[in-house]
Amino acid sequence: MNARGLCLFLVLFVASCLIAAPQDESVRSDARSPVISHIPRDRVPSNAIASIGYSKRRHILEIEFANGAVYRYLEVAPSVYRDLMNADSKARYYVANIKGNYPSVRVRPRVKDRND
User: Fold this and answer.
1) How far apart are CA 115 and CA 93, in angstroms?
2) Fewest beta carbons within 10 Å, which of 23, 51, 55, 85?
3) Closest to 61 measured CA to CA, from 44, 45, 84, 43
């Protein structure tokens, strides 16, 4: 095999490896199949957060926001859920302790106003 053939082989091999590589789970993508939620959520008194649910077994926190969006946060300790539920301001606690600190998946996008 000459040098040109070897280079072509290597390029094709690397390209096929990249295509076959599993997708990084920390990257959010709307192209993937939608997440279906089976975590029951309780309504909470908040202007920004409508309801909150938690799976103790899977350590998943699910938050429905007032705008209709639902996000799932992974690897959340039970103490974080407990502190969130006991917080005077759920929105402030969320911003300070959850948002950006845990891997997240969008379960449902926000509901756009009819005027959007």
Assistant:
1) 31
2) 23
3) 84
Cα–Cα dist 60/36, whole Å: 13
- pTM exceeding the 0.85 threshold for the entire prediction: no
Question: What span, in angstroms and rounded, lies between the C-alpha atoms of 34 and 113?
Answer: 22
Dist CA 61 CA 83 (whole Å):
12
- Joined together, the tokens standing for residue 98 give 């959850």
- Rounded to whole angstroms, how far apart are CA atoms 74 and 111? 23
Residue 73 pairs with which residues in a beta bridge?
A: 61, 104
CA-angle at 46, arms to 44 and 47, nearest 5°? 140
Distance CA 88, CA 99 (A): 17
What is the layout of strands, in order, in the sheet containing 49-55?
41-43, 49-55, 60-65, 70-73, 104-108
Query: Given a cut of 90, is residue 102 above it in pLDDT?
Result: yes
Name the token pair of 19: 């295509």
pLDDT of 23 > 90? The answer is no
What length does the chain have?
A: 116
110 token code pair = 């926000």
